[in-house]
Every structure is written in C-alpha cells, then in structure tokens.
Design the sequence.
C-alpha cells in the first residue's frame, strides 16, 4: 500500500526534484572548482618556476663571468693565465714570491668582485701547486691531492657546477677555526688555447644564501616542497648536511629525468606524496639543474574544500526547509484525493445515490464534481438498459469496419493510377504503383520468405516514395550481383535497414543524402548484403552498445522485441538460420553508417515462397 500511495509518490517526487538537482549542482560545482583551481595553480606555479629559473640562471651567469677572470689580460706576461701556463710544471717549493703575490692579487680581485664567494681554489694541472683564498687568508702554493668530482663532464674540458656541499680545504692545510658553510662550487678548467689541454682548475665556492633566498620565494614552506637537483640527482636545494653528496631516492625524480620536455607537470600518488609535481630544467654549457615543486592535494584543494563545506551547510538548511514544505504540500494536496477514493469505494460497492461534498475549486475539485455528475449519469443509463445499447452499437461498428478490406484499398489505388494516366501524369502513376506494390507486399501475410529480387523491388518502391518526398536531396543506388536475385531470404529484411537511415541520420546530414544497397556471394558460403549511407554515423559509445546488443544470444534478442529495428532484423535471421547468420555495424569515413548482413547461402533448403 505504501508503494501505491500518491502521497508517498508525491513526497518522493518533490524530494527527488529538489535534492538531485541541488546535489548534482554541488558535485559539478565542486569538480569545476577543483579543475579550475588545479589549472590556475599549475599555470601560476609554472610561471613562478620559470621566473625563478630565469633569476637563478642570471645569478649563475654572474658567477660564470667572474670565473672567466682567469683569462683577463691574456697576452700580458703578468696575467694569471700566463703565470699558470708558465709555472704549471714548477714544483710548489720553487714558486717565487712575486708570482705568488700576483696569483693572490688576481684571486683577490675575483673574490671581491662577487660578494657571495666563500673561497677560491686554484690548482695547476700537475697538482704540485694549489692555492686557496678565503675571507681570512691566502694559502699556497702547496702540493695537494684534490681530484675533480665525479660529476665533472667527460674530458674535464667544460666548466660545471658541483651540487651543494659543506665547504672544505681542498686537502690543503688550514686553520681549524675557519668556519664551514654550505656552498655550491663552480669548477672552470683553464684551457691552454687554441688546444683543449687543461692546464689548471679554478674552483669558486659560492655561499648558498642568495640561491636559497631565490628558491624560498618559489613556494610556501609550510604547505609545499621545493627541490633543486643536478643531472646526477644530487640535491642542491634544500641543503642539509646529512644529505650532502647523497641522492634523493624518490621514484618521481626518475620520472622527471626520463622526460624530454624542458618544463612540465604531472600528477603523482604514492605513500609519501599525493599531488601535482611541476618541474623546469636549467641547461647551459656549465649548468644542468632541475627545479622541482611538489604541491600536495591538501594544499591545492584547500580553498575549494572550504567552498564545498559552506555550500553543503547551506544545502543542508534548504533541505530541511524542503522536507518540511514537501510534507505540508503532499498532505494538503492528497487529502481531497483520499476523500475522492473513499467516494469511489462506495460507488464500487453499489451506492450510486450518494451526494459528494466538494470544497475546492482546483483541478481535484473539478474532478470530484465531474465524478459526481458521471455517477448520476451512469445511474440513469443503467436504468435505461444502457449496457444493451452499447453492445448493439459495438456490433454495428465492427460490422462496418469489416466491410473495409485490403481489396477495397487496392482497387482504389488502381483507380487513382488509371486516372493519373488519363491525365497524363506518369510520375503520379509511378508513385501510386509503388505504393500499391508496397501495400500488396505488406498485406500478403502468406509468404514468410521471398526471393531477394522481391525484397530489392520492395525497398526500391520505398525509396522511390522517399525520393519524391525529398526530391534531388536524396540519391540511392543498387549494386546487386545477378546470382543473388533468386536466393530466398526472410520477408521485410531490407526496408527496416533503409528506414533506419531516415529515422536517425538523414536530418543530420550536411550534404545530399545518399544510400547504397549491395549484394554478393562470399566464398559460395554466404550471401552478403550491405546497406550504406552518408549520414552522421553513430557516436563510438553508442556504436559499441549496439554491437554488444547484436552479439547477445537469440533468447535475449527475443525478449521485448516489438520494433522492426536492427535487433528485430537480426532476431528474425537467427530464427531462420540459427546462430550462423550475423549482422555487422560500422561507421564510414569521413561520414556515414553501414549495416552488413551475413546470410548462409542455403536458403533453398530453408523454405520456399508461397503464392
């Protein structure tokens, strides 16, 4: 009884039409906000990374220019380059004071030209001479066993940057009171031009303060993470003494290194991080670093989550109001209906002489008054033997209908055709003849199977009538193999396939409509019939659904088949030829739709037509 109650149905309907749209709106709004926030955040962060990349590369370019000071006054005997070239094979103990003073002066000029330099190390190629200039002292020449880091380019002929590490003495003697700092090092090989022979190495340790200041402007420390790595995965930023010289073992880092794009982003989710990863690569002849920014979903969707919570609170308040209003409306609306049902129950019990009380002037009130009037009328008609009169009139009507039969319609069409010839209107005669053949074909229920030639003629008559309707906007053609005309097929096989074009595709076309019907014998085993059109085709998802429907077994096709569509055609084929008959549907390129029937070529064994 609960399911049949109009009151309950009305309550469910009102709640449904309010809750579902509101809930759907919230969901769509939330998805839209999340997508918008994500796109906007990615765009802003990629611009921010690009700006940070530009600032860092400009900063590194200053260091690069400073390191080129080793080549200043190249042709002057007292230049740093000439001293390195001249003294590179001299033992440390044999370097005179004048040359040591000149080297100190040149290194000091470099040191003072850039405020972020922590120390400068110069090592000649034979390792017998090493010089170290810090803010507190100048030491050298000494024999030191310092070797270039493994991250140096092959051949050691190109400058490169060493990732962040703690400063050291390059294996030279130094005071223990000298402070250690986190630095990154610019290594420049001194080349004996025009050859590529390396005659020394200039190493500039640069304080990370300025680099870190630039990096800190690129992210929110409490919510996001930012990393800078070199090409070997060594961490440049953030610099942590316990991670110095170590690589970060994160799978997303390998993903970034495998990407060929200079900049990009992707989503990532694992046990350690879930969110958006953005990166931008910095590459020059001396620099190969990558900036990586990790933005977790919790931070990305923080504002959208607040909006969603606010919307949910507002919706909850409105839903309470809707529920109360729904209860009131449903009770107020259904109370007169319940009274009317009570009156109907009394009428059903045989009480036709009661007076019905009507209060409202709305539709239910009108319905109640009409019901009251109807009861009185029925009561009068019953008293006048109305049932007998109805039976007589029904019999008379059936007798009149039985007089109109197919022969009358056929004779009428023949008369119209004769009149068309008399009036010299052969086109009208042709159309009437086509219509007549269609009617006779459809009215002849004795034949369940016919030769293919009759099916072709029937669909041609149908297309002739359609062409008269659409004029030169419709073209059709037949490509029928002669040997297929006598093959017996189920009746009404092709016309539903042609009609399918006019139902679903013809009105959507952008050019003249075209339909083509073909038949052939395939390997003497199958009759293949194709119906092609140039319509809009079918969306991929709907096409897959149709194919799934057509692949169902016969017992499932038989359920609920009342139309004469594609499924019905396939069902009748399988009833006649079992599972050996099949139907294929495809979209044509650039536009169009194609239905192909595969019919076993043994129709003569299946049955014959009857006349």
Sequence:
């Amino acid at each position: 009884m609960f399911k049949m109650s109009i009151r309950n149905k009305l309550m469910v309907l009102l709640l449904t039409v309010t809750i579902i749209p509101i809930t759907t709106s919230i969901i769509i709004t939330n998805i839209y906000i999340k997508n918008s926030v994500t796109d906007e955040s990615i765009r802003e962060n990629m611009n921010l990374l690009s700006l940070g990349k530009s600032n860092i590369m400009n900063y590194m370019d200053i260091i690069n220019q400073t390191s080129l000071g080793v080549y200043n006054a190249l042709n002057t005997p007292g230049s740093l380059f000439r001293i390195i070239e001249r003294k590179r094979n001299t033992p440390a103990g044999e370097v005179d004071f004048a040359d040591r003073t000149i080297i100190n002066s040149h290194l000091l000029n470099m040191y003072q030209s850039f405020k972020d330099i922590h120390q400068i190390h110069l090592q000649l190629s034979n390792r017998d001479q090493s010089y170290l200039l810090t803010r507190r002292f100048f030491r050298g020449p000494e024999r030191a066993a310092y070797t270039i880091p493994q991250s140096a380019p092959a051949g050691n002929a190109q400058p490169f940057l060493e990732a962040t590490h703690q400063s050291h003495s390059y294996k030279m003697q130094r005071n223990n009171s000298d402070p250690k700092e986190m630095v990154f090092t610019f290594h420049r090989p001194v080349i004996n031009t025009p050859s590529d022979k390396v005659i020394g190495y200039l190493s500039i340790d640069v304080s990370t303060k300025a680099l870190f200041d630039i990096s800190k402007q690129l992210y929110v420390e409490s919510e996001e993470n930012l990393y800078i790595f070199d090409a070997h995965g060594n961490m440049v930023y953030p610099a942590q003494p316990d991670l110095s010289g170590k690589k970060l073992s994160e799978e997303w880092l390998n993903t970034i290194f495998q990407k060929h794009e200079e900049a990009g982003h992707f989503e990532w989710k694992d046990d350690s991080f879930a969110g958006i990863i953005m990166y931008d690569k910095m590459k020059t002849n001396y620099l190969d670093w990558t900036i990586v920014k990790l933005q977790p979903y919790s931070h990305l969707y923080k504002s959208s989550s607040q909006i969603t919570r606010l919307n949910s609170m507002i919706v909850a308040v409105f839903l309470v109001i809707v529920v109360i209003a729904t209860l009131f409306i449903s009770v107020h609306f259904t109370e007169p209906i319940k009274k009317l049902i009570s009156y109907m129950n009394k009428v059903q019990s045989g009480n036709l002489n009661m007076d019905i009380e009507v209060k409202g002037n709305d539709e239910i009130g009108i319905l109640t008054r009409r019901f009251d009037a109807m009861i009185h009328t029925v009561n009068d008609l019953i008293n006048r033997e109305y049932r007998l009169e109805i039976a007589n009139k029904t019999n008379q009507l059936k007798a009149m209908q039985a007089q109109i039969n197919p022969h009358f319609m056929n004779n009428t069409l023949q008369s119209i055709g004769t009149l068309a010839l008399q009036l010299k209107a052969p086109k009208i005669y042709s159309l009437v003849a086509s219509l007549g053949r269609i009617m006779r074909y459809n009215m002849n229920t004795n034949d369940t199977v016919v030769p293919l030639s009759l099916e072709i003629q029937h669909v041609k008559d149908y297309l002739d009538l359609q062409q008269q309707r659409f004029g030169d906007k419709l073209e059709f053609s037949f490509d029928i193999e002669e040997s297929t005309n006598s093959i017996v097929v189920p009746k009404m096989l092709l016309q539903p396939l042609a009609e399918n074009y006019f139902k679903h595709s013809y009105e959507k076309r952008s050019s003249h409509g075209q339909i083509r019907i073909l038949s052939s014998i395939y390997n003497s085993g199958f009759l293949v019939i194709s119906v092609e059109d140039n319509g809009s085709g079918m969306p991929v998802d709907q096409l897959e659904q149709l194919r799934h429907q057509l692949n169902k077994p016969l017992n499932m096709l038989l359920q609920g088949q009342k139309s004469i569509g594609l499924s019905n055609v396939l069902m009748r084929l399988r009833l006649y030829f079992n599972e050996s008959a099949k139907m294929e549907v495809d979209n044509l390129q650039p536009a169009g739709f194609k239905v192909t029937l595969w019919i076993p070529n043994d129709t003569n064994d299946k049955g014959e037509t009857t006349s």
